[in-house]
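Reviewers of the previous submission asked for a worked example of the structure-prediction workflow described in the proposal, so we include one complete record here. The input consisted solely of the amino acid sequence. No template or homolog information was supplied to the procedure at any stage.
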Amino acid sequence: YKIAGELTPCVLHVTARAIAKHALSIFGDHQDVMAVRQTGWAMLCSHSVQEAHDMALVAHLATLRASVPFVHFFDGFRTSHEINTIELINNDDIKALLNKPLYVDAIQHHRSRALNPTHP
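From that input alone, the workflow returned the following structure tokens.
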């Protein structure tokens, strides 16, 4: 609630699992993720390993742009245990995205809100 109330850019990547049923259940019902719906955090869901990789970057870009915290979640057993080949996003492509004036300003605004000894 505090992070959402202060409009702090933040992303939590969550592997959702069933919490109310048998501990060995591989079929997640996402109760843990649904429990945070009322907190003011935006939510993004991924359904595959490639989507989880891509949406991780989307979540970070969106939180910087909107100053709203995000929960990025995916199935805690099937996706997190899947061995699959994915196409990685090139670091140069990520840097090119973050060097756009919109994100440079958002990153600077986020850093200016930080607490430090010279700027309490």
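The two ends are 22 Å apart (CA to CA). We consider this example representative of the routine output the project will generate in years two and three.
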